[in-house]
Amino acid sequence: MPVPPGRRPAACNGAPAHGQPRRPPLTPCRHARGREIAAVTPGLRPLIAGNWKMHGTLREAASLAEGVRAGAAGLKAEILVCPPFPYIHVVAVAMLGQPVAVGGQDCHLAAKGAHTGDVAAPMLRDCGATYVILGHSERRADHGETDAVVKAKAAAAIAAGLTPVVCVGETLAQREAGQAETVVRAQVGGSLPEGFAAAGGVVAYEPVWAIGTGRTPTEADIAAIHGALRETVGGATRLLYGGSVKPGNAAAILALPHVDGALVGGASLVAEDFLAIARAAG
């Protein structure tokens, strides 16, 4: 859930809550047509999460937040946006009173300390975040994060009152070797701390070779991995698919069994496209 209406998030690093740049007018969003009915696991609300990665200026982040805010009301899915660290507070303030949650893209496993350049989970919470993405393949590759590190970070997030979104996924070589299911089961087993399901933790399946490439697994491949993940985590954990999710393929992907939402990368940087994906969730 976003920060409750009427309560302004605490200022981050002394930044004022007001004074965001003026936002340019936005083009109204198109509505999706002919979408399929999403096959969300019974009892679980779909989650559409946008990972903005390391993109945008402060002005662009404010404009994108306003675009998402303007189209979020009345959607069946829960909406989450994860801007770069410096913009979390501004985006959280923009979403006050609206059904849009805000999250971070990583956190340190320690709550505080001499860790130059890192961000602690309580800091994210203090800036208005309620979710945090952990174990993304880009973090695992660029920063050498292991399952054990991801597990410790997820535990730290839960302790701070954040909902962790833990990413798993195989490389192209692992898929071609027939190891995809084995790899993601092992990543889940090594990356989820005790109490993950009870804390509302989310698992996102992102095949590494599909992220930002425009390539996606077949629907049968996605369904097979999500079925294996459901067997592994049980029925209380939402399972997202990520990897080149776009308005054109979202309805078909979200209609697959055990797909409870999407973790969206590039398409989340355009409010109109992101909201079209959200509408495809039901």
Automatic annotation (TrEMBL):
Active site positions: 136, 206
A GO BP annotation: gluconeogenesis
Pathway field: Carbohydrate biosynthesis; gluconeogenesis; Carbohydrate metabolism; erythritol degradation; Carbohydrate degradation; glycolysis; D-glyceraldehyde 3-phosphate from glycerone phosphate: step 1/1
Reaction equation(s) it catalyzes: D-glyceraldehyde 3-phosphate = dihydroxyacetone phosphate; L-erythrulose 1-phosphate = D-erythrulose 4-phosphate
GO molecular function, one term: triose-phosphate isomerase activity
Protein family: Belongs to the triosephosphate isomerase family.
Keyword Isomerase attributed: yes
Signal peptide stretch: none
Keyword entries, A-Z: Cytoplasm, Gluconeogenesis, Glycolysis, Isomerase
UniProt subcellular location: Cytoplasm
Subunit and interaction comment: Homodimer.
One GO cellular component term: cytosol
Residues that, per the record, bind substrate: 51-53, 212, 244, 265-266
Principal subcellular localization: cytoplasm
Name of the protein: Triosephosphate isomerase
Species assigned in the record: Neoroseomonas eburnea
Keyword Cytoplasm: yes
Domain of life: Bacteria
PROSITE patterns to which the protein is assigned, alphabetical: TIM_1, TIM_2
Pfam families given in the database record: TIM
Region entry Disordered, spans: 1-26
SUPFAM superfamilies: Triosephosphate isomerase (TIM) (SSF51351)
